[in-house]
Amino acid sequence: MDVMAVLSAPSASRAAKPRTSASKRVQNRAAYLFVTPFFIALIALVLLPLGYSAYLSLYREQIVGGVSFVGLENYITAFSDPKFLEGLGRVTTILLVQVPIMLALSLLFALIIDSDRLRASKFFRLAIFVPYAVPSVIATLMWGYLYGGEYGPIAQLGATLGLPTPDLLSQEWMLTSIMNIITWEFVGYNMIILYASLRTLPTEVFEAARMDGAGAFRVAWSIKIPAIRPALLLTLIFSIIGTFQVFNEPSLMYKIAPNVIGASYTPNLYAYNLAFVNQQVNYAAALAFFLGIVIMVVSFTVQNTIERRNQKAMG
Amino acid sequence: MKNSISSRMRTLGALALAGTLALTGCAAGAAGPGNGSASEQKYTEEDIQAALKKPTTITYWQWTPGIEKQAKLFQEKYPEITVNVVNVGQGPDEYAKLRTAIKAGKGAPDLAMIEYQFLDSFTVNGSLVDLTAFGAAESKDKYPEWLWSQVDRGKGIYGFPSNAGPMANLYRKDIYDAAGVTTPPATWTEFADAAAKIRETGSYIMTLPGNNAGQTIGYFWQAGAKPFGFDGDKTITVNLDSPEVQKVTDNFQDLLDKGLVDNSNDFTDSWFQGIANGKYASWLTAAWGPVFLDSGTAANTAGSWRVAPLPQWDASKPRSANWGGNGTSIVKGSANPLVAYAFARFLNEDPVSTKMLAFEQSQFPATIAQQEAPDFASNTVPFFGDQEINRVFLDSSAQIDTGFQWLPIMDFVFQSYNETYGKAIADGTNLRAGLTAWQKAIVEYATTQGFTVK
């Protein structure tokens, strides 16, 4: 999903002119030609490596003993691997706690900016969006500094005011700290998607509602939010996928707090360490695949449930 | 969350690509020249000299700044030879690239700088050339016995030692004096007393970092422990519950429990600040430690530092340990092993080159000749109040227990430390339990990798 595409989503209606079959054929050919580069990239950079890791995941290479075919053994191991399951538990917590907070904030900001009651709304839109433009590597380094116990401004402020500040990089607080970083990074991104969707709504409906005496809150709750449900679902699905694959934040936090993060804080970090520290590429491939399946199942279930509910509500 | 998705996709893709490289590598490795037994063919000095007269280019991966100077010297001596010195990253970064290149069957350098503790992780799958065939055994007497045993792994000689890291106690004389510690602690008992006195002044005598397995293993080494063993084939021993290791562990447990030793991680920003602002009065480190002090944050403390030997377990039988250090190895598959051999030997044994290593690249010398060079021992360092600090490190080097071995899976051992023993240090929990967990994790992993664990 490209942000720019969403922002400039054409409101122009599609031309429905009937065409001759010859020109259609030419058009089709041109269309295929245009999508070819994408398909080449897709096959070379996504499908082939994906197929290859599926293949790898069925083998086991040992430092002593070499390569052997093990079938689904790697997957069975993953199923009962406490490190993998703990990591999965952690990202599930993020999904249940952080994602709702982040999307609620995104929606709130989008509605506020869309309400036209805000002065300098362009500035706020940009300010909320800017964190997304900061590479997550830099974002995490920055937050690592902010969280730091001895030199971090949060701890220093607490010390100056005589207030106790928790060690934000400790075992108890690390997950919260990471969730905070992710929220900060992606609130603006989701807000832009929702805001763009709000902008495409026909204004006549709001006017009619206002004439009937509906206030701004009523309009937002009963008209705007239901109307942008598809965009909300989109942000939710993106967030689910992103959450299960959290990697950069814990990976960088490892440098600051190696004893808290360890090798398997999230499933993706675990897969990375298995491949590059433990030299267990095959098991890492199996984990990555397993994780992919989990993501698909969860995304599909969420999407289906919401769509079914939508249909019920409409019917 | 577009960025996160694509970046994570990339991770997955990279993983898969790495896997691709890995597998093609296996195929190439099995059939390629890599597995040929080098010991079948012997080379003479004439062969080496003849090879040096042909136009040849060799590549050396390493991360010491300034080695280009030695390469230039070598090229002046042998005008037909070109040495490409490439820095592909430090330590683990280089190893990851080296492993990938070796598995891919192409792109690997002729020579690589490898730390002693990681040498076995390359010899276990036959990635390095046994230098015995080139006559490397003749170099044995040029190095201290313990150091030579770091590259002579019994089954073969896998490199030339470049430098060493004999350990010592770098301490702040001003803080020691203020606390009434007039002489640096000679034993670990005295160390505990000194720690208590220094704690009263507000400083810690030191920190025991939970993120530095290398240093902790150095303490084990000094106590005479032999926690690891590898037969060069498929059998390893993991002995982290030996009495020597437990002795070290219990000592630190005591110091930590009493709050006399800090447990903050090292090489972090706050650690560097702690070193500079007097939070720590000592740093028990290796001969490369001073490099981190005099250039950088601690520059303002110049003149107040001194170097003393490590505290001893038995003052009548002084012992020391090594932390770090590396050598130059030849990578299997090198098209020019003779030239590579000549360069590795020149770099680490030529008097001009070793003098450069000692004085320009600030390394503790590996060769006995350079160690015994009068201007090395008598070199005074203003940062340490004009003390002749090399003498302390030379004594330390002479007291290092020989025959200390490593496992061919040290990458895992080091990372696992952070989650077990190191975590116990950081969390202030029971170190013995951390030790048991560490041992268990290593044995489990080694078994998965097909090793026989004794």
From TrEMBL, chain A:
- Alphabetized CDD domains for the sequence: TM_PBP2
- Its transmembrane ranges are 31-51, 91-111, 123-146, 173-196, 227-247, 283-302
Chief localization class? membrane
The way this protein sits in the membrane is described as: Multi-pass membrane protein
Tell me, what is an example of a GO biological process annotation in this record? transmembrane transport
Output the Gene Ontology cellular-component terms. Answer: plasma membrane
Localization recorded for this chain is: Cell membrane
Q: Name one Pfam family in it.
A: BPD_transp_1
Which keywords annotate this record?
A: Cell membrane, Membrane, Transmembrane, Transmembrane helix, Transport
Instruction: Check the record and name the InterPro entries matching this protein.
Output: MetI-like, MetI-like_sf, UgpAE/MalFG_permease
Q: Where is the ABC transmembrane type-1 domain?
A: 88-302
Per the record, the similarity remark reads: Belongs to the binding-protein-dependent transport system permease family.
Among PANTHER family, the record links this protein to:
BLL4140 PROTEIN, DIACETYLCHITOBIOSE UPTAKE SYSTEM PERMEASE PROTEIN DASB
Task: Quote the protein name from its UniProt record.
Answer: Sugar ABC transporter permease
Which source organism? Mycetocola tolaasinivorans
**Classification lineage:** Bacteria, Bacillati, Actinomycetota, Actinomycetes, Micrococcales
UniProtKB/TrEMBL annotation, chain B:
- Residues in the signal sequence: 1-30
Output the Gene3D superfamilies linked to this UniProt entry: Periplasmic binding protein-like II
Say yes or no: keyword rRNA-binding present. no
Q: Which InterPro entries match?
A: Bact_solute-bd_prot1, SBP
Organism domain of life: Bacteria
Asked if the Swiss-Prot or TrEMBL record annotates the protein with the keyword Signal, the reply is yes
Keywords in alphabetical order: Signal
In Swiss-Prot or TrEMBL terms, this protein is called Extracellular solute-binding protein
Task: List the source organism.
Answer: Mycetocola tolaasinivorans
Q: What is the lineage of its organism?
A: Bacteria, Bacillati, Actinomycetota, Actinomycetes, Micrococcales
